[in-house]
Structures
1.
Amino acid sequence: MQTTRRPLSLASRAAVTVLIIAAATGVAHGSFSLYWAAGGNWLVATLGHQLVSDFAGRRWLLFPVGVVKIGFAVFPLALAVWDRPWPRPGRLVCWLGAVVLMVWGGINTVTGNFVLIGVIDPSGGYDRDGMIGHAWLWDPLFLLWGVALTAGLLLSRRHVQQPSQA
């Protein structure tokens, strides 16, 4: 017996669209972690000298970081494309991730830009390349990932129709 897949609703299509954006930003973030773990150096200066020196000789630690980022990036999209009610624990993990991504990305993007324009003046100075990388690339990607994930979660909610009052 062949089952016919019903077309996605407008809200479901919108949810999938923003979850594709969330997945793409998360996969980009995770892919760079894997690239650096494998010894790549492109954009490594945008991480900041302190972070680079902390991982010197231990870049392999970025492999599990990259795998986890990519896994969490595609998980919500896979659930949405599956087009069934999401398991409650899955939604809870996604909501927690969305909040962490938005708070982390938002605070660090704003703080980094405040440092770059001189509103905040770190007493010990700062690594300009690293600050630019975090203020304009890595933390805004976290923020975008979190905002898109939040939108996808909101759009993918299953609404229960209430019986009309007679």
2.
Amino acid sequence: MVVLPKGPEGFEVEYVDADGVRRRVGLAECWAEPFGRLPPVRTVRTYPGQKSVTRQYWAATTRGPLLVESHLERHHAMLLDFDPQVAGLAAQPFRLFWPTRRGRRGHVPDFFARRADGEGLVVDVRPDDRIEPDDAEAFAATARACELAGWRFSRVGAVDAVLLANVKWLAGYRHPRYDRPELRQSLLEVFAAPEALFAGVGRVGDRLEVLPVLYHLLWRQLLHVDLDKGMLGPDNMVGPAERVR
């Protein structure tokens, strides 16, 4: 259990609780809040000439939308959604305040993820070449607040192109409607030992019928295929997930 002194290092957190009430309290008073299930602390608005793209990502983890402000944020929302250890996921989860020589500053991280083991993860999305001094200060302050709260902090940037393309393909089959229990069981049995993707699918039935179910199982990581060594195709070896964990 994490025990924080009251108002550690002057950090305050503004958030919207499960009842829709906006709160601003010391970090010590809210570090245990279920931020992975709370609504966003702010609304993202579009404006003329905007460089980023504001849109929503539908997360299979929560079966609801996540607010993202750019293609890169959407990619990282998808990767968090793809992680089978992520049990809760929220965008724009809170606004962190801390004292500086110029007065109090605030920063809204991009995501909060709650992992299956209970660990909290705060994620900021920003490419290496777009970090200005104020950004670096905000990320450092967020990392320190996370350290005090017992959370992990990660600042992420560009995603490997091959991994991204493969996960985007599988994300097209993330919805539960692609889960067909009778085909799921057959696929788990066929790929109990590693086998080429198309060959195994052909042993189960018609490809057009079976492939969507296989992609759904790969999205859920109930079956495993290497996603970072080449584009997903008919000859990729698919096998049981437990062999790679």
3.
Amino acid sequence: MSTTPILVTGAPIVVTGATGKLGQLIVQRLLALKQPVRVFTRRPDVARKLFGESVHVAAGDFGDRRSLDAALHGANRLLLLSPISARLVTDQIGVADAAVAAGVQRIVKISGSDWTIDPPGNSISGDAHAAVERHLASLPAVAVSLRPNAWMQVSLANTIRHAIANNTVAAAKIEAGVGYIDARDIADVAVHQLLAERVSGRTLNLTGPDIVTARQVAELLSTVLKRPVSAVDKAPLPASQDADFEHRAIAQFVRLIAAGRAATTTDVVRSLLGRPPRSVAAFISEHVAAEAALAES
């Protein structure tokens, strides 16, 4: 399997969700490879501030087919990314259908974690992503769905900040392992699949190189911070009945992780990129240094 993307020239690559953490990383990598990028966003001012004149900003909304058609006109690849919300299925299917109508040949979707999708019925977010994946499989365009396991830049970053302030790592079950993945590795795989001669499957389960427990995270932080950091069990608060979709989804993530569902690793990142994924130890060292620099500024 080739580890070097075959560059696409000419037609723009449309990126949704470009102003979020992962979307920004993907756009930056595409620009570094001198790819023409068109950003579809509800926040054109934010996109222009982030990317300047280096991208074409197409303002619009997922529910506005006219703006979707304009954004996708002439494109041949689509990076499909949107926030966790009750509209995820409707929004993403609408984008995918508009993309096919516009002649887009390949769709790379940032999906939910594999453990939220299979088996079904345990995660409202996973079930939503699964519905989009099924729809993509019915379309004539080539589609691949990336299933990142658990992002270091989300839950692990919050854990590090809490440990710096309180010298504790709290988890619903401190012995439950997680195969954390760095968002930069997700972005690298996404760009690979956008630009490679062919996609590497219908779904790709992306993880880091190791399964790490909260207790092990505390030990790593103790070493880096040069002071004791303890791991403590903390029962998760149930989502209230009137909580929004995102908060209910996050509460389900916590329960599934505590049950050991995220304790998995794959070799997908290494096989595609020709290098190992970034480790939790490296991320902790880097993040602690960044937090210290921020505190001093």
